[in-house]
Description:
By secondary structure, the protein is an alpha/beta fold.
Amino acid sequence: xxxxxxxxxxxxxxxxxxxxxxxxxxxxxxxxxxxxxxxxxxxxxxxxxxxxxxxxxxxxxxxxxxxxxxxxxxxxxxxxxxxxxxxxxxxxxxxxxxxxxxxxxxxxxxxxxxxxxxxxxxxxxxxxxxxxxxxxxxxxxxxxxxxxxxxxxxxxxxxxxxxxxxxxxxxxxxxxxxxxxxxxxxxxxxxxxxxxxxxxxxxxxxxxxxxxxxxxxxxxxxxxxxxxxxxxxxxxxxxxxxxxxxxxxxxxxxxxxxxxxxxxxxxxxxxxxxxxxxxxxxxxxxxxxxxxxxxxxxxxxxxxxxxxxxxxxxxxxxxxxxxxxxxxxxxxxxxxxxxxxxxxxxxxxxxxxxxxxxxxxxxxxxxxxxxxxxxxxxxxxxxxxxxxxxxxxxxxxxxxxxxxxxxxxxxxxxxxxxxxxxxxxxxxxxxxxxxxxxxxxxxxxxxxxxxxxxxxxxxxxxxxxxxxxxxxxxxxxxxxxxxxxxxxxxxxxxxxxxxxx
Length: 501
Ligand code: NG6
Ligand code: CA
């Protein structure tokens, strides 16, 4: 009798445990590259349609004031994964393809905390957070890397599509490397005898406009030098298919356990070379075609969730790593074929800028049963909060001292807090600050427009914008609001000096 009741208790315990495990949601973060506020059709009328992304909004919540941390890639990604503002790490700037890993493997990260609580974790796609300890030997095992910061699986574009090395890295190894044709990468001294993009300019598939004139791979010249690894070099046209297949495989393999998948697209970063299925589909040239391709990839991921019975228990987030850019180094008709498409929507400037267009990006969440369909939220939301918020939702144990700038934004993420963050730092070279409707840009220069750029010189005291009246940041009201300006200057300094993220 006694042993029977023990057996029953054990069964009940096991059932409860498995129910709890099953209830833990999966997280799919779709992190696009250089996609602006106006590049997704549910944000405003685009010249092309993004139906799969729009469907996430129809089934979920679309934020109108959500931000990545910085107006460039590396710092935004660093913050998303570490919950620490990137300005606290001096190395978190646009990295060369030969840069060492900038996340300390001892640091608690979003994937590591989830992994320690039983999640399967993966990053598929663009990395750009450095690899190894400097002077990486690409012919051996490359580490430390994603594995050391908490990703159980990785399949990477190591830096960017426009930087060498132009090969994929899977679980620390270059995919398809022929040991007889070893890879060497250099960001200083020129290596190899192949002609560069400057020398063989008339042979290029896509001409460069600034920079991007070193090693030629797949008919496109890149930043940085690279020799060897000929069979392993990627084909840009296939990149979206390759990484999407890897992500879909990961979903299928991990359907029995909770997972965190960081799917990080190369699109719509330069060079914009979509597969021929998408060429001409947007009517705005390669930049828009790359966006149509991204939308297709999103559709494939959604299908994979549905096919594996995971759609109902997966939180899907769609966002971008910085604002939009047009000519970012290649002559790809981004300006010429733009028509009346508006990559930054109502905002000013984009990538590289302290104006809102630098960091205010599409941010959409779908989480069936938890987030009501077809909503919009005007809450001020920062990707810096994803680390703590996701770990809290997962019920993971967050170590003391982890995620220094990351707040639990769970209520805002599900649409229950219409206000959101009290303040948010915006990094673009220097820092700017949001507080409610106010935007403070300290003295100095910042980029304007979308490439080609102009420079705006912000005068000594700094500029202050009231976004409720002036979303396009056209009229500084610093003189009329001297107290507010002074208060925000002090607050920004305080955040800079202490962990008051
Ligand atoms: C810039 C590159 C630009 C892009 C950017 C990084 C030049 C002239 N420009 O230095 O093309 O690669 O770095 O973009 O080289 S990001 O989205 O990864 O931050
Ligand atoms: Ca980017």
